[in-house]
Specification:
41% of the residues lie in helices and 15% in strands. It has 143 residues and is α+β, with helices and mostly antiparallel strands. It has a single domain, classed as Ribonuclease H-like superfamily/Ribonuclease H (Nucleotidyltransferase, domain 5), CATH 3.30.420. The strands form two sheets. Strands 1-2 form a two-stranded antiparallel sheet. Strands 3-4 form a two-stranded parallel sheet. Strand 3, helix 2 and strand 4 form a beta-alpha-beta unit.
Length: 143
């Protein structure tokens, strides 16, 4: 897309997947920060109750915010975070889903504008959610 260099639009997609049954949770955000991460995790927690969940997670700064232990204990009782070693994203099953999303929507496409790109990402994710078997196949359980 043509750009002046003055302004860069950005969207972040937070995501979590259950590799056993293909459940997929996503949230689009304008920023990747602690508050957006907390909001996403509250939504995932509510959606997965009463089940207990172990969630592998990378070492992004907003995953290690100050006071995370106390906040987590008070707000996310059913999810235990499993921090992955640095540079081991291949251990996180959702990474193959992100790769599929990029190949299907962003690679070799030229979008007229940023909103068209976001719209197509959301459409692809919506369609993908109707195929839990495909999600489960993309996200193998490797632990």
């Amino acid at each position: 897309m043509p750009t002046t260099g003055d302004h860069r639009e950005r969207k972040v997609i937070f995501g979590a997947v259950n590799p056993e049954n293909g459940d997929f949770f996503e949230q689009f955000s304008d920023v990747a920060n602690t508050e957006a991460f907390k909001e996403f995790m509250l939504n995932v927690s509510k959606s997965t109750l009463p089940k207990n969940v172990i969630m592998p997670i990378d070492n992004a700064k907003y995953h290690h915010f100050k006071g995370i232990s106390d906040w987590w204990k008070d707000n996310i009782p059913n999810i235990t975070l499993l921090y992955l070693p640095s540079h081991c994203s291949f251990l996180n099953s959702i990474e193959l889903l992100w790769k599929d999303l990029r190949l299907a929507v962003t690679h070799n496409f030229l979008w007229d504008n940023f909103n068209s790109l976001i719209s197509n990402l959301k459409t692809y994710i919506s369609e993908l959610k109707f195929s839990p078997r495909k999600i489960a196949k993309l996200c193998p359980f490797i632990y």
